[in-house]
Specification:
By secondary structure, this protein is of the alpha/beta class. Helix content is about 30%, strand content about 15%. The protein is built from 11 helices and 12 strands. It has a 12-stranded mixed sheet. Helix 2 (about 75-85) links the parallel strand 2 (about 60-65) and strand 3 (about 90-95). Bound molecules: S-adenosylmethionine (SAM). S-adenosylmethionine binds near residues 28 and 96.
Length: about 325
């Protein structure tokens, strides 16, 4: 079993396969996009498979593929298929915006993907366009339908933004009435990629929950799973459930079991750190698996206690406002 210097189990890897995205959610990246990584800067699929295989041998049990948008990287399905055969990997899952995903759902089912996080901040096509700057609402809803049809568990991720989509909170909760979905409301974080100063959080998890309780005062608290980042609830009689994620308030660091690898191979042992080592450079310098394992173990034994400490440790030149697409949200 892999543990860190605070005795926390590490068994979950979030791997971002690209920084590119086909949406321009304003809270994630500027409308003109990012200064995209070149192909040679990206980890190759072969490198990703090799590091995933090593990490699974070391104790990683669950891998989430994310980005950027995973489906904009060419041949992603082939990579996922190879990954799904790794011995010892108990769960392969992904986070997607759903724009290109619908046609791949049957294949995802076939390779054993049991759960997908679908990002959807609004149920209104006009607000979807205002938030994402792209007219793709219909395609995202088609992915939603396909996932449900193929019995893949769906978690909807909705970032709550003052003046943008708070009127969607209740309609999103109402999705859980007849559908077996888990709708998760996420606090907005400063990772917007355009360097603008984050002026503080208007909608924290307490306010989001209060808003839901005004309409549904009798929502019941569910037991959260041991490494859950969300506080989970259910409206009595509803099929689905609701989660609230204190991503900015950082209330869940004490049980954090996850590490991240960015598209260019940076290892992050906390969402808020600036990267602790570069796996791509280590692999390309000719390191053996044993060399890589040793540096990884060293990094895991120096994990910050929480996201506040990680943010404080960042150099002044690297404030925490890179895009979530380069981190792997
Ligand atoms: N493209 C995929 C998607 O949209 O699901 C995966 C990558 S995206 C960066 C992963 C998640 O990060 C999405 O649910 C997105 O809403 C969330 N995210 C991006 N920027 C964020 C921010 N500043 N605060 C909170 N969540 C954010």
């Amino acid at each position: 079993m892999l543990t860190d210097n605070h005795g926390r189990k590490i068994n979950y890897l979030r791997l971002a396969v690209t920084d590119r995205c086909n949406l321009r959610c304003f809270y994630c990246m500027p409308e003109e996009g990012l200064n995209w990584l070149s192909r040679s800067e990206l980890l190759t699929y072969e490198e990703m498979l090799s590091v995933c295989s090593l990490l699974v041998k070391m104790g990683i049990e669950k891998i989430r593929i994310t980005g950027g948008e995973p489906f904009v990287r060419k041949d992603i399905m082939q990579f996922l298929t190879s990954l799904s055969t790794l011995d010892g990997l108990n769960e392969l899952t992904m986070t997607t915006n759903g724009v290109l995903t619908a046609p791949f759902v049957p294949e995802l089912k076939k390779i054993g993907v049991k759960s997908v996080n679908l990002s959807l901040d609004t149920l209104d096509a006009n607000r979807f366009f205002a938030i994402t700057k792209r007219d793709e609402f219909t395609n995202v809803m088609a992915t939603f339908e396909q996932l449900l049809k193929h019995d893949i568990e769906v978690k909807i991720n909705a970032v709550v933004m003052d003046g943008k989509n708070t009127q969607d909170i209740i309609p999103l909760v109402e999705l859980t009435k007849d559908l077996p979905v888990n709708v998760r409301f996420i606090e907005e974080m400063p990772f917007n990629g355009d360097g603008h100063i984050y002026t503080g959080l208007q909608w924290d998890y307490v306010r989001i929950l209060d808003e839901i309780k005004q309409k549904y005062p009798d929502i019941t608290k569910l037991t959260d799973s041991p490494y859950s980042t969300s506080y989970n609830y259910q409206v009595p009689g509803h099929r689905g459930t609701i989660g609230v994620i204190a991503a900015y308030s950082r209330t869940f660091c004490g049980t954090c079991n996850r590490i991240r690898i960015t598209p260019d191979g940076e290892l992050k042992t906390c969402l808020y750190d600036a990267g602790v080592l570069n796996i791509r450079d280590i692999i390309r310098s000719g390191a053996t698996d044993e060399d890589l394992q040793n540096v990884l173990l060293k990094a895991f034994s120096h994990r910050p206690k929480d996201g506040w400490e990680a943010e404080k440790n960042r150099s002044k030149n690297l404030p925490a406002h890179e895009s979530m697409a380069t981190i792997g949200g």
